[in-house]
Amino acid sequence: MPPPNNSPRATTLAEALFRPRAVALIGVSDDPGKTAGRPLTFLRKHGFPGRIFPVNPHRPTVQGENALKRLEDAPEAIDHAYILVNTPAVEDAVRACAEAGVRVATILASGFAEAGPDGVARQDRLVAIARQSGLRLVGPNSLGVVDTHTPMALTANAAFAADTLLKGGLTVISQSGSQIGTFVSRGAARGIGFAKLISVGNEADLSVGQIGTALAEDPETQAYLLFLETIRDPEHIAEFAARAGRAGKPIIAYKLGRSDVGRELAVSHTGAMIGSDAAAEAFLRRHGILRVDHLETLFEMAPLVVGRKPPALQSRSVGVVTTTGGGAAMVVDRLGMLGVEVASPSAETLARLSAAGVPAQPGRLLDLTLAGTRYEVMRAALDTLLEAPEFGLVLGVVGSSAQFHAELAVRPIIDCARHRKPIAVFLTPEAPHTLRLLAEHGVAAFRAPEACADGIAAYFHWHSAQQAPTRDETSLDAARRVLVDVTGAVLNEDRSLALFEALGIPATARTVIPLGAERVEALPFAFPVAAKILSADITHKSDLGGVALGIATADELARRVPELISVVQHRKPDTRLDGVLVQPMESGVGEIILGYRLDPQVGPLVMVGMGGTLAELYQDVALRMAPVSLAEAAEMIAELKGIAAMQGFRGRPAGDLDALAEAIARISALANLNEAQIIEAEINPLIVRPRGGGVVAVDGVVRRAAACA
What we know:
flat, 34% helix, 25 helices, 7-stranded antiparallel beta sheet, Rossmann fold, 4 domains
């Protein structure tokens, strides 16, 4: 039975995590230098106001404080226990917490899901014990929980040996335990403080999304920073993002896994299942979560988004004012690589600059040189650019004067910081004092040009969480009818094209020549035609010699059909053949690949890319969570590098990109056919005809879950 409750208990998960009235340290060491001894030291050092109960069965005192032999001996209810024992003893400690009515237990030890099948089993037992009593778990592999405002440093991270913890409005939720210390130490050097930091470890129970949801309305948090190795619990992250969005609090994420090596390391670290990074990118975008590529950008860029909404589409360009052309060029060069436009001041803006006494010449950089080190010149330049309608953000780049004379070119930036339009700053010298000054005044100041460009690009790529489009129940019912009598997990090409037609995607005319038929007397379309082996067992028919193109006459078709069958039966004798599919030869201004996939991590995805036989080689694709609206589909098309060839490039006819967007939205509606258990679908190629001519699906495949076979 839980001990008598002599003081008010935490009433919410957030309170138990970050503002507990009583904390137990299970297995705390007497040696403050050891990992298991640090939490007691840090709680005392940083002034935790609640009760602390060291639990150590082997010592009557720990670090000079009386210790309990057993958790059940605690004289009052425990809100939060930190389990510091070695891996073999963790299960008993969790059981003791469950029996004592503890609200939350954080587990330091490793050796669980990341350690293979035996570790997975150990972790599963912990969760089972906790769920029987309502105990919530953080970790395993958690370096702890910190709240600078309580204050509470319930952590074993060595970085919290710092003399003070700088308070701020940023809350960090990290899958890597060491990173909470990284943020605190790097932030302190820059004058950037944090509200809360938590190392979630393996997320055996409480996940990033659940913790974020519990904190979505935290009054001390202005923005959330996520350090992610994978996405384990997408449903709760989506809920977190929605609640944070309603509260006007942005979420910024740094996610590992861009490379194969990064994904491999994430797997080995916490036993996570890693999906494609592109899928994670699409998931974050769908839910309005900004993604950055540089670690320091994660906390440097926060002032660009705190208290703001995503930028309007018509104001996604940067205006640059600088005292050093070379320094500004370093950022501008990176912005160009990231697809962010750096615009020149308009003639009207140049006139206003001149009238304000600012030396200005036409060009992408407003380079003030030494004149910009005078307060009145820099201030006038900033005021003018901030009011100029052609800019959605103003970048100030300051040279050597920033190191020792912030009052010259940096002070005017600080004085403009409350403008409705965001300001980003890059200082070319090593100027820690000035960086701290900018941070204190809520200015997004960057130490490196790469991080500066990264932050600006993330700001301009920021979207509000996107709502799923309205369902077209008529087309969904038609698709269900196509699937009624389908057997097997894979649909052959004829049936796949029929499904796409049911969704509203035009497909080419076709007829099936059954096995054993010598010839077709009449086709419902004209020659020339294409003939293809029809089989659910063959995805790449051309690789097996199962495709014949440009067949000009009925006699040639009668000759080629048995040849195709013979070649495929010879090369793949066990293949089930449904006959030969005959289609008219189609042409257009280009070929596109459309794809749908049910990702095991984040859910349904839709993909568009430059198509044809070399689609896999070029990898020129755009990806989104499905289903998508027409507007999202148009954004996907615009991201394709090769799409220029279908936009009237060098006199070529323009393609019907409106029809292409419609097709993308239509195939993405497969996400609404949950009962069909479609895990993969592809149209390749989708022929794009000249503008006004529409699109036509020529080849396709649909794969369902094995349970449907």
